[in-house]
Write a structure and sequence with these properties.
Elements: E1 3-6, H1 11-22, E2 27-30, E3 47-48, H2 55-65, E4 69-72, H3 79-84, H4 86-107, E5 111-117, H5 118-121, H6 142-161, E6 164-170, E7 172-174, H7 186-195, E8 200-203, E9 214-215, E10 217-219, H8 220-232, E11 237-241, E12 247-248, H9 249-260, E13 266-269, E14 278-279, H10 284-287, H11 297-313
Parallel strand pairs: 1-2, 1-4, 2-3, 4-5, 5-6, 6-11, 7-10, 8-13, 9-14
Antiparallel strand pairs: 9-12
The structure holds nicotinamide-adenine-dinucleotide.
């Protein structure tokens, strides 16, 4: 197996690159470094600094590295930016993704594992329920729509060109190397702000002062393990990658504060435009294939906090 990880210099992709590298599996990264960093990946892993919107450059990387498998993590990954610029979102997430599929077809690459979004694709999940993969996608943002559309293209390429794919619909992923300066990734944002003794804003679910929206937080190591399972076995189809447990934003905040031994200064704000109230996903299907989330939330937060603390001390 030879794996090309698109977006491999980013938060999630870089964890997968390290895991493949540690296993001795030949791995290369295709990334334009728009949000990713060279320093996130081992120095001896080849990097094709390439925009997936550039078909010729993508083809060159495939012809040069000759991957058997692709882990497609590269994306415009911000819901907010997708609302501001839906054309750019579709150029990267849909047309860029099609360039990857065309390059696979041209070079006979066997399998793709696609990083989709469970956190956005199902829309609002009724409280107390967990969205299974069988629920039809109800995108509420251009980002979710482009991810859902690309899922359909994967199935079309399977039927017409015999391409093999696994779609992994991630819940809310957190862990070391997540960008703390975006508007998403609440664990990274809160951790960074508390470490610098800055106040945090807690957006309400309904009314300012409530504990905030409910999300399903999954540690990046568990997401990496799901990708390895999809790459190393004949797993095909579409799977949620989640814990199945919902947590409020306030719960997340105070778990981080406890891990840091600090008391947060909190500004309670009204609901944020476009935020889903509840998103919790059912992980039963992937569990039937032997995958389990192995990092309990408190432990995952401790490890994430330790990593951010180390960065600030450098
Ligand atoms: N973080 C989450 O909670 C989450 C949840 C669901 C799905 N996802 C998906 O997981 C994948 C990885 O997300 P992440 O959180 O690690 O984000 P990230 O921004 O850290 O990683 C994305 C990577 O893709 C690269 N990239 C962006 N545009 C590119 C382009 N045009 N050409 C080549 N490379 C490009 C970036 O430089 C970056 O390294 C994305 O597909 C995202 O949509 C993430």
């Amino acid at each position: 197996m030879r794996v090309l990880v698109t977006g491999g210099a980013g938060f999630i992709g870089s964890h997968l690159v390290h895991a493949l590298h540690q296993k001795g599996i030949p791995v290369a990264v295709l990334d334009d470094l728009s949000t990713g960093k060279r320093a996130h990946i081992p120095p001896d892993v080849p990097l094709y600094q390439t925009d997936i919107r550039d078909l010729n450059a993508v083809l060159h990387a495939f012809q040069d590295f000759q991957p058997t498998h692709v882990a497609h993590q590269a994306a415009q990954a911000s819901v907010k930016h997708s609302v501001q610029n839906p054309c750019k979102d579709a150029e990267i997430n849909l047309l860029g993704g099609l360039n990857i599929l065309e390059a696979m077809r041209a070079t006979g690459t066997q399998k793709i594992v696609f990083a989709s979004t469970g956190g956005a694709i199902y829309g609002e999940v009724p409280e107390g329920r967990r969205a299974p993969e069988t629920w039809p996608p109800k995108p509420k943002s251009p980002y979710a729509a482009s991810k859902a559309a690309f899922e359909h293209y994967l199935e079309v390429y399977r039927q017409t060109h015999g391409l093999t794919y696994t779609t992994l619909r991630y819940a809310n992923v957190y862990g070391p190397r997540q960008d703390p300066h975006g508007e998403a990734g609440v664990v990274a944002i809160f951790t960074n702000r508390l470490l610098h003794a800055q106040p945090v804003t807690l957006y309400a679910r309904k009314e300012p002062g409530d504990p905030g929206c409910i999300r399903d937080y999954i540690h990046v190591e568990d997401v990496t393990r799901a990708n390895l399972l999809a790459l190393e076995t004949n797993l095909e189809g579409t799977y949620n990658v989640s814990t199945g447990q919902g947590r409020t934003t306030e719960d997340v905040l105070y778990t981080i504060a406890r891990a840091l031994g600090t008391t947060p200064r909190v500004t309670y704000a009204p609901p944020r435009d476009g935020d889903l109230e509840v998103s919790v996903l059912d992980p039963t299907q992937l569990q039937a294939h032997g995958w389990r989330p192995q990092v309990p939330f408190e432990e995952g937060i401790r490890r994430t906090v330790a990593w951010f603390r180390e960065q600030t001390q450098r």
